[in-house]
UniProtKB/TrEMBL annotation:
This is Inositol 2-dehydrogenase. Residues 343-370 are annotated as: Disordered. It is an enzyme of class 1 (oxidoreductase). It catalyses: myo-inositol + NAD(+) = scyllo-inosose + NADH + H(+). Pfam families: GFO_IDH_MocA, GFO_IDH_MocA_C3. Residues 142-256 form the GFO/IDH/MocA-like oxidoreductase domain. The gene is iolG. Homotetramer. PANTHER family: INOSITOL 2-DEHYDROGENASE, PTHR43593.
Length: 370
């Protein structure tokens, strides 16, 4: 693919995120053309394709991935099918932007790290980018630049809040809060500290009455970073209010917060009860809050496909995050702190050694990220 060629993209999975990515690829991303969508719910795929010109729809993901007129694949299917679909992309030597989580557990994610490495040896570039879009969010990117500048001194703590108004259905069990929601905070912690998470403890406060029966919501997770820093995380997926994602970094000479309503959104309003109210709007969900981040993420991916220089979160980042989620699910069950031992990136075998020796890819591959 030359740097002037238009990237022909296929989307696999056209639920909430697949449809959102289709809109951006078809209307806002330069240098790309959406050519095909696939979903076992073929009617849904057809309805989406009909919104654009020249996009075909099918039910078979593997057929789309193998198609000659598809240069690159955006996977927005559920996490439990990511492993097979990413492997199919790698077998076809096609770049793939895989939505988070990379896979459902650390073993399968590690297999993808190895497969991407083999692909790199074959085609000269890694092919997998993982959809941790917060790295592309201007606020998170700005916070990282501030922390890296050293202006505030060494980073000591992060405090994260992650709330969804509600989750789609009763299938969203307690484990999903760790694997699908908290996984973003895992990536944020690695991104902002530039270190691995070495231990996790997940606490189970009394659940809200709005959670499905037996679901532990909210949850509070505590990460220990390789250098001893601590990250506290509240994840609450039935808050009833809206999408709230905040992060405060505490460093030796100051602190910085992102995700607060800015003063430009300050408004007053007369409410139905006749009383004045103040405040900005709380976004309904991630598609609003992170719209710019998704645009920048997908544009960077398309640019990287054209230039041949990969960017963004790697398969290793996906694996490292999944390893923390896997430990987090064990902690959720036991209430105990669980240590995390990442594989040795040199041999790709599990090692008991601490992953904090950052002389290699073992360190979070965040330094060169946007
Ligand atoms: N980066 C972010 O902020 C977000 C990422 N996600 C991730 O995006 C992915 C999709 O999530 P949603 O769109 O919310 O799910 P969804 O449930 O709305 O849509 C999933 C779609 O995949 C289809 N599907 C099921 N099996 C499939 C298969 N074998 N091959 C292809 N398609 C298949 C379903 O029919 C459905 O249309 C997940 O990995 C999720 O974690 C979801 C929400 C936000
Ligand atoms: O990735 C996401 C969803 O899968 C997850 O379910 C939500 O809790 C997150 O806020 C969203 O960003």
């Amino acid at each position: 693919m030359g740097s002037n060629d238009v990237v022909r993209v296929g989307i696999v999975g056209v639920g909430i995120m697949g449809a959102d990515h289709a809109e951006r690829l078809a209307r806002r991303i330069a240098g790309a053309r959406l050519v095909a969508v696939a979903d076992p719910d073929e009617g849904r795929a057809r309805d989406l394709a009909a919104r654009f010109e020249g996009v075909r729809a099918g039910a078979d993901a593997l057929e789309l991935i193998a198609a000659d007129d598809v240069d690159a694949v955006l996977l927005a299917s559920p996490g439990f099918v990511h492993e097979d679909q990413v492997l199919a992309c790698l077998a076809a030597d096609k770049p793939v932007l895989c939505e988070k989580p990379l896979t459902m557990d650390s073993e399968s994610s590690l297999r993808l790290v190895a497969a991407d490495r083999e692909a790199e040896e074959r085609v000269g570039r890694r092919l997998v980018q993982v959809g941790f879009m917060r790295r592309f969010d201007p606020e998170y990117a700005g916070l990282r630049t501030l922390l890296e500048s050293g202006e505030l001194g060494r980073t000591l703590l992060l405090h994260n809040v992650h709330r969804n108004a509600s989750v789609p259905n009763a299938d969203f069990r307690s484990e999903m809060i760790v694997r699908d929601s908290l996984v973003h905070e895992v990536d944020v912690a690695r991104f902002l500290f530039g270190e691995e998470v070495v231990a996790i403890q997940v606490l189970s406060p009394a659940p809200t009455s709005h959670a499905a029966d037996g679901v532990i919501d909210p949850q509070v997770a505590i990460f220990t970073m390789a250098g001893g820093g601590i990250v506290t995380n509240e994840v609450f997926v039935n808050s009833q209010v809206g999408y709230e994602v905040r992060c405060e970094a505490v460093a030796e000479r100051g602190s910085a917060v992102i995700g607060r309503p800015s003063s430009s959104t300050y408004t007053t309003a007369l409410a139905v009860d006749g009383l004045g109210r103040w405040g900005g709007e709380v976004p309904a969900d991630y598609r609003t809050r992170f719209a710019t981040a998704y645009d920048l993420e997908v544009q960077a991916w398309v640019d990287s496909v054209r230039s041949g220089t990969p960017v963004g979160p790697t398969a290793w980042d996906g694996y490292a995050a999944t390893a923390v989620s896997t430990a987090g699910m064990a902690s959720l069950a036991s209430g105990e702190r669980v240590d995390i031992a990442l594989a040795d990136p040199q041999t790709l075998s599990h090692s008991a050694s601490s992953p904090d020796t950052d002389t290699s890819e073992n360190a979070p591959s965040t330094k060169e990220q946007p």
